[in-house]
User: Fold prolycopene isomerase from Trichormus variabilis NIES-23.
Amino acid sequence: MSVTSTTSQNSLFDVIVIGSGIGGLVTATQLATKGAKVLVLESYIIPGGSAGYFERQGYRFDVGASMIFGLGNRGTTNLLTRALQAVNSSVDAIADPVQIHYHLPNNLNLKVDRVYDKFLQNLAAYFPHEKEGIRGFYDECWQVFKCLNRMELLSLEEPRYLLRSFLQHPLACLGLLKYLPQNAGDIARRYIKDPELLKFIDIECYCWSVVPAAMTPMINAGMVFSDRHYGGVNYPKGGVGQIAQKLVEGLEKAGGEIRYQAKVAKIITEKDCAVGVQLTNGEIYRGKRIVSNATRWDTFDKLLPVDQIPSNEKKWQQNYKKSPSFLSLHIGVKESVLPQGTECHHIILEDWQNMTQPEGTLFVSIPTLLDPELAPEGYHIIHAFTPNWMNDWHGLSVSDYEAKKEETAWRIIDRLEKIFPGLDAGLDYLEVGTPRTHRRFLGREDGTYGPIPRRKLRGLLSMPFNRTAIKGLYCVGDSTFPGQGLNAVAFSGFACAHRIAVDLGL
Ligand SMILES: NC(=O)c1ccc[n+]([C@@H]2O[C@H](COP(=O)([O-])OP(=O)(O)OC[C@H]3O[C@@H](n4cnc5c(N)ncnc54)[C@H](O)[C@@H]3O)[C@@H](O)[C@H]2O)c1
Ligand SMILES: CC(C)=CCC/C(C)=C/C=C/C(C)=C/C=C/C(C)=C/C=C/C=C(C)/C=C/C=C(C)/C=C/C=C(\C)CCC=C(C)C
Assistant:
């Protein structure tokens, strides 16, 4: 055993964070800069979780997240920028001029321009009879964003913060209270009647919330549909992994510790209070507060006795289910494959009926268009991914698993050929990830992308905050308010750290 780990095991930490996803790292850095003694335990060999990376043959591939919100330089909603600033750090953010290039049924071929009015014009050109409705809906999304972007974003479980926010920004708070129980689809239907345009609003939501507009919380829609034109979508130079790496550097400078290949097997409780964790190798660490950045399913079904799941967690599981995982193709291609003027992010859907089906919506990200240094000279990265369920990958022999991967990958490459003719001939590298890959490397049950409502719920009202029914145990990340997205889990990190800092009297 190393000297560091013996020392760590004998110390009492203020806070132990299980997992170094962006949610966990924001919590850890915020607390370390407030003077807390923090230990992060990560099961993998590098930090970042879904916002991590891997390198093969001169390519640096992003594991998951690739369309990054929250790296803007103004307002209060740029939470990734703020989390980095808190540890005196930053990343070079490369502005993406187009959030998404949609390739949709009935030749709906549309670019979401960074400039708001240009986007509205592009959309109204397809639906001139709905020009007013389009502006009405997206302008209402801005109302949500303006409320959020005015105030400091901290723990909604801290009454003094709520009171202070209300006294400083009464109208913004009332605005947020109004939108908290609402979903984007209901608001869209007040302005828009054309069924095809409503389908477009569905995919606008689906491509980040993994549910249609009727089930997508309006607060989140307000964030995404406005911030893409305000702070914008920005790509961190050097790859998405830079964000986690810089947070770790900042954590260590602030006196915090991180250990890799440290998989937590169990959260230790004494008298119904979380007091420590035990790793798979038997090592025990004790802390005054324990934070789990694993999903709530992994936390309550695996790290704690399954027969003692608190009733509010059972209720949450009745309201939310695991979204599908993804089938991901990490591709290296010759630059000649990409037509002049290709955008970084694409959504491809041939038939509206298939939007929510496995392998229906195809997501494409080409980060080398913004940062060419992620691939060898003359080559690009194409990351193509599409929803896929773990059930389809269970119980296969090694050879059947490989054969199914290959067959699925070629179906996707055939679809990509329609916008990138010559892709097959220009292939230089191909690696396929399945739901099993996501489960293995991210430690997420069934490789899920995050929680989705089982039925239509009232906006964000049923999403739990950071505290749990177990004293001393907090959750952070995408199964915590306000849900998935790097900027969303960064919010959950700020909120979690704020609540713990108050609880510890820091
Ligand atoms: N997966 C994707 O394809 C994808 C794509 C786009 C965006 N995203 C977003 O990425 C965000 C995820 O952020 P997050 O902070 O919630 O979590 P995360 O899943 O990124 O990070 C969790 C971390 O905890 C570690 N971990 C899990 N169990 C552990 C254990 N028992 N012991 C030690 N370490 C353990 C994992 O290795 C991982 O590094 C979400 O918002 C998601 O929507 C994901
Ligand atoms: C005072 C009183 C009484 C009251 C008051 C009330 C209040 C204050 C309230 C508040 C609230 C709050 C703060 C809230 C917050 C929220 C937030 C922050 C939110 C956020 C969100 C975000 C999001 C959602 C994001 C997302 C994103 C994503 C998910 C993305 C993804 C992406 C993908 C997947 C993609 C891809 C694509 C391609 C490639 C094409």
